[in-house]
Design a protein that fits this description.
The chain is mainly alpha-helical. It has a single domain, classed as lambda repressor-like DNA-binding domains (434 Repressor (Amino-terminal Domain), Orthogonal Bundle), CATH 1.10.260. Helix content is 61%, strand content 0%. The longest helix is centred in the middle third of the chain and has 16 residues.
């Protein structure tokens, strides 16, 4: 007989995982990358442009934008400045 899997929402899973101190530490360490990716994706979608169009404006390939949005790279400040310019926005860094 097959067991029934209980579906868990993203929010429930996140709450459960964040109870583990090691997981929480690693998750919080990635927060700057999450913010960069979220903001780039949000600005790109708001302007209704594709990754390919953003890449053209930045002067790079679509794969670079995909890696940036997917948090699969460590972008240079230079690249982030070019992306911000292509999106007609600014980069703001806050150290807390």
């Amino acid at each position: 007989m097959r067991s029934k899997n209980k579906w868990v929402s993203h929010k429930e899973l996140k709450e459960k995982l964040l109870k583990d101190p090691e997981f929480r530490r690693k998750y919080e360490k990635l927060e700057p990358e999450f913010q960069i990716a979220r903001q780039i994706i949000g600005a790109r979608i708001k302007q209704k442009i594709s990754q390919e169009e953003l890449a053209r404006r930045v002067g790079t390939g679509q794969a670079v934008i995909s890696r940036l949005e997917g948090m699969n790279s460590r972008p240079s400040v230079s690249l982030l400045e070019r992306v911000a310019k292509a999106l007609n926005t600014k980069i703001t860094v806050t150290v807390q």
